[in-house]
Design a protein that fits this description.
By secondary structure, this protein is an alpha+beta fold. 33% of the residues lie in helices and 28% in strands. The chain contains ten helices and eleven strands. The strands form two sheets. Strands 1, 2, 3, 4, 5, 6 and 11 form a seven-stranded mixed sheet that branches. Strands 8-9-7-10 form a four-stranded antiparallel sheet. Strand 5 and strand 6 form a beta hairpin. Helix 4 runs antiparallel to helix 5. The radius of gyration is 19 Å and the shape is globular. 48% of the residues are buried.
Length: 306
């Protein structure tokens, strides 16, 4: 394969926050949320320049160690070769270390931007390969599938290759996220999970995961039952006791609530008429946000658009 040619103009990519698991769908179900990171990438004559505003501006590296840059580099290798230089500008709004898919957003932004800035990139790296690459970098497909495809996604692996389908969420569903001040490392949360679980709990979650597909897409009145979980949230409680307590408190009040991804953010799935009331239930120590549902996923946008 001949080396790639690159566009002279910059490309802008917008990627959504995501919530994975959604209660019972551990490492398989994901939801795309209306909160976005924007990235502008331009091929330069030489070197690497990274500018970051917003989330992570004081902590993220501005060199080859940045996850977005590493994802760009990995995608360029698959596209046929590296550009001479890169300029990367990040406007980050997705909170880091809170279970809202910030790493998946960086990964997807990087690989989508690499494809967009490469002439003929769509033919060299199609959507199926894009999902497989994102999953390889992230380690599991739930968040990256929702980030790339938008909507409500079901992801799995087949012979080691990542696959996903996208579904539309019922229009009456409104996500509310409760974001705490302190992050929790995904590695810490995963380290608390047992190697095996009781068969009765696995069976319970299988049934609830199937029910959740129906509840989120067609029958939101079933969401409280459909978001019950026995596989991961209670095991992770020592790392995020306030999150698990808030989930319990919301659910006792009839609100379908779960730990978002590996936590510690709490996600509530409510209706428009109740969303403002749910926002007020958090109490101190939480930043509560009513969000929209993202139906598009990772997108290449005109540079001047809002």
């Amino acid at each position: 394969m001949a080396g790639p040619a690159f566009r002279a103009a910059a490309v802008r990519v917008r990627v959504p926050a995501t919530s994975a698991n959604l209660g019972p769908g551990f490492d398989t179900l994901g939801l795309s949320l209306g909160l976005y990171d924007d990235v502008v990438v331009r091929v330069a004559d030489s070197g690497l320049h990274v500018d970051i505003a917003g989330e992570g501006a004081r902590t993220l590296p501005r060199d080859e160690n940045h996850l977005l840059v590493r994802s760009l580099r990995t995608a360029f290798d698959l596209l046929g070769g590296q550009p001479r230089g890169l300029e990367v500008v990040c406007a980050n709004r997705v909170p880091h270390g809170r279970g809202l898919g910030s790493s998946s957003a960086a990964i997807c932004a990087g690989i989508v931007a690499a494809r967009a800035v490469t002439i003929g990139g769509d033919a060299r790296l199609d959507d199926t390969a894009l999902l497989e690459l994102a999953t390889e970098i992230e380690g599991h497909p739930d968040n990256v599938a929702a980030c790339l495809l938008g909507g409500f996604t079901l992801a799995w692996t087949d012979g080691g290759a990542a696959r996903a389908i996208r579904m539309d969420v019922a229009q009456s569903v409104v996500p509310v996220v409760f974001v705490p001040e302190t992050p929790v490392l995904t590695e810490t949360a995963r380290g608390l999970l047992p190697r095996s679980v009781p068969h009765v709990d696995a069976s319970f979650n299988a049934g609830r995961s199937a029910l959740l597909v129906e509840a989120l897409t067609r029958r939101p009145e079933l969401l409280l039952a459909a978001t019950e979980d026995r596989l991961h949230q209670e095991y992770r409680a020592p790392a995020m006791p306030q999150s698990v307590e808030l989930v319990g408190r919301l659910r006792a009040d009839g609100v379908p609530a779960v730990v978002s991804g590996a936590g510690p953010t709490v996600l509530a799935l409510t209706e428009d008429s109740a969303a403002d009331k749910v926002v007020r239930l958090a109490g101190e120590g939480w930043a509560a946000h009513r969000l929209g549902l993202d139906g598009t996923g990772a997108s290449v946008l005109p540079l001047g658009s809002q």
